[in-house]
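Why does residue order matter? Because the sequence determines the fold. Keep that principle in mind as you read this record.
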Amino acid sequence: MPSRVTHKQVQAACERYNKAFGFTEWNDLGRLQWADIRGDGVYRPRLYAVCNENGGVCNSDKQRGTMRKTIAAIDAAIKAHKLPHSYMVIIQAIHERGEVQTAMLAELNRRGLWLSTEQKAQAGLGESV
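Structure:
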């Protein structure tokens, strides 16, 4: 990735995410968009996800402190979604750390799976997860 990350690159990451998850309509639940919806005249885009069938948006859980980290979170979510077998997601949720582990835990939840108490201990997670 180049040294300077632009808004266009975040938008491209959103498009990759929407394509990977099969979101083709503007109001598909979970669809990501990089937009400025404040309307105060200052361009400050954020990452939003569609949260209702009318196309309403809410802040996305993939928004991070910088655009570079936001792109990394989006790409990690795509990687997790593309894993064909659930055991692959479980293994990475246990053995990876950081953004990859966060994405794998979210993917487990999306697939209706969870980690056992022993697996949570292996993953370095407390009882709150």
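The two ends are 32 Å apart (CA to CA).
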